[in-house]
Amino acid sequence: MTDLADGAVVARVRSGDRDAFGLLVERYQDRMVAHATYMGLGRAEALDVVQDAFVRAYRHLDRCGDPERFGGWLFRIVSNQCRTAAKRASRRMIGPLEPHVSSLASEAAGPDERLEAGRVRERVRAALRTVPDEQREALVLMYLDGLSVGEISDMTGASPSAVKMRLKRGRERLKAELAPLVSEGREP
Amino acid sequence: MKNGQDRDHPLDHYLSGEMSLDALPEELMREEVQIRELLEMLREDVAAPPEFRADVMGAIERLSAPLWVRAMGWALRPRPVRVSPAGGMALALAASAILFFAWPADTPTDGGAAVDGAAAEVVTRFVFVAPDARSVRLTGDFVAWSREGVELEDLRGTGVWTVDVLLAPGVHEYTFIVNGTEWLPDPRAVSQVDDGFGRVNSVVIVSNGNAL
Amino acid sequence: MTRAGIALLIMCLGLPEGARGQQPDLSSRLDPPTLAAVQPILDAAARDSLPLEALRSKALEGVAKGAGPQQIGDVVASLADEFRTARGALRGGLPGVALRDGEVVAAAMAARRNVPLAVVWGLWASRPDDGSLEVHVTVLSELVRRGIRVDEAATLMSHVVRTSVPLEVAAQIPGKLDGARTTGAPPGAALAEALRGLNIPDPPGRGRGRGRGPSG
């Protein structure tokens, strides 16, 4: 069964084979968890959000218009859940923690390469969090999920020109946040 | 920015996929490479854990079952449980019930259960009776446990100290500091909780909505 | 000047910077040993999506009360574990439901009062909208603490949730119950009296002490 295309698996689930849905879970779980993580959710929350999305997809499988493109439909559900979760997370005042984690690490261990890469990664992560939600989503979908502007447009419902605007503004914001790293041509 | 201008910018062509990276002006290309590399750093091990599929399928199974089956399912499933020492580590927040004297601030509310961060704060009165006190201060989670806290006033000189504070809807822990040194719970609160540090905190519930 | 106006003026006169929901940076309030004790706990809590404000608040409380770094670390760690357990249990019983920090904290407290978390999540099934259940869970655990049977308290609070009894009314149930108990009434009868005092109709099937309701 593992060779079955999405459309065939969805058909099986719809005809009552609930366990077949597990195949779709396995097929897409890593990619969805990756996206949720790139969107800035903590590990536990990313797993919760993706789990919720799969459950939602199962409950509403009848609404999947093109079963052959189950992955894209699922991705839209995950995106929506991430957007909601990101809005909730921004109200939690975890802001002061991130810079503190970075500074503690740098104070504690000094100029160690691995630590340095970790510190840079934390700064990038923190910088991405300062980008407004829609712009961050566009950046993640393009640079980390590898989607084109057209695909991002399909996914989010925004027009291609709106997507490009979000990408450009998101890049500007990221540049401003990471100015020391970008201008120095820093190597990871 | 108008659409016409967008279409002329090299970055716009690049984002649309009409221009390759190395066709960009040098500075723009260098910037784009750096941004890509920095974002690529976030691409790390973010796979789902091995038990993820089972967790999802378990959640789906429980969907079909009636509520009581879901409840039993949780009770029977093994879970790691940490047992606190009998000496009682403190409990931090939220347990109890007293709505002392709360009425909504002069902002419109929807009367709903809006206890997340965006909800309007509510003016809440605190009262402490201490005829012999020279000073009474209020501190709690809503002032980040500042020792300075909020000063109560004995407005009529009767030993009844009061203060009104704007609190976010929800459950808050607090205590009084009398004469700058004595930390005393609120005897009017319906609940006291161990604070874990050898003392006791009082609890107030604040809700927005119409006054009674 | 309105009463609220006077109150706000009084409040504005002496309110420290830390009030009104602004949380100071921990590093400015904690000495290095205490920070070192609690930071790993907070980092893990952030990864596990636990209620961070509550944990930070507990650390700050410890400092204000003069506790040592080790004790503060232990208290915060224990609290984080309680949150972790409560959150895991609620997530297990409520697939697809987003949880607020306050709800997790209230559930942890309920567990401390020996209210089964399976009972707590029953309130979510009664919820007509997505309003927070922090107050309802808190009231539920307070009723149990006062000797009301768990199933009776759960039935009542589900009813309160389902019928959208105003929060400020629901929050008064334990206090009213205390008032009714001063007359010597047993918990069940005192609860009925408390509900009458708040104009909360009996849950269906209860009808105790009212002489009216769906069955009669």
Descriptive tags:
heterotrimer, A: 188 residues, mainly alpha, Rna Polymerase Sigma Factor, Chain: A, 74% helix, C: 216 residues, 2 domains, 0% strand, disordered C terminus
Our estimate of the beta-strand percent of chain A is under 5%
| H and E order of chain A | HHHHHHHHHH
Low-pLDDT parts of chain A are: 91-111
What do we call the CATH homologous superfamily of the domain at 1-92 in chain A? RNA polymerase sigma factor, region 2, helix turn helix motif
Rg over C-alpha atoms of chain A, rounded to the nearest angstrom: 19 Å
Structure description:
The complex is a heterotrimer of chains A (188), B (212) and C (216). With 188 residues, chain A is mainly α. In chain A, 74% of the residues lie in helices and 0% in strands. Chain B is of the alpha+beta class and 212 residues long. Among the domains of chain B are: 3-40, no CATH class; 102-206, Sandwich (Immunoglobulin-like). Chain B has helices at residues 3-8, 10-16, 26-40, 52-64, 67-76; strands at 102-104, 122-129, 136-140, 150-151, 160-167, 170-178, 182-184, 192-194, 200-206. Chain B is elongated and about 80 Å long. Residues 1-6 and 76-118 of chain B have low confidence and may be disordered. By secondary structure, chain C is mainly α. Chain C has two domains: 30-93, no CATH class; 100-202, no CATH class. Chain C has helices spanning 3-14, 26-29, 32-47, 52-64, 69-93, 101-112, 117-120, 122-126, 134-145, 150-162, 167-170, 173-181, 187-197. At the B-C interface, helix 4, helix 5, strand 4, strand 5 and strand 6 of B face helix 1, helix 4, helix 5, helix 6 and helix 7 of C.
Topology readout:
The complex is a heterotrimer of chains A (188), B (212) and C (216).
Chain A: H1 6-14, H2 21-38, H3 43-59, H4 70-91, H5 97-109, H6 113-130, H7 133-144, H8 149-156, H9 160-177, H10 179-183
Helix pairs in contact in A: 2-3, 2-4, 3-4, 5-6, 7-9, 8-9
Chain B: H1 3-8, H2 10-16, H3 26-40, H4 52-64, H5 67-76, E1 102-104, E2 122-129, E3 136-140, E4 150-151, E5 160-167, E6 170-178, E7 182-184, E8 192-194, E9 200-206
Chain C: H1 3-14, H2 26-29, H3 32-47, H4 52-64, H5 69-93, H6 101-112, H7 117-120, H8 122-126, H9 134-145, H10 150-162, H11 167-170, H12 173-181, H13 187-197
Helix pairs in contact in C: 3-4, 3-5, 4-5, 5-6, 6-9, 9-10, 12-13
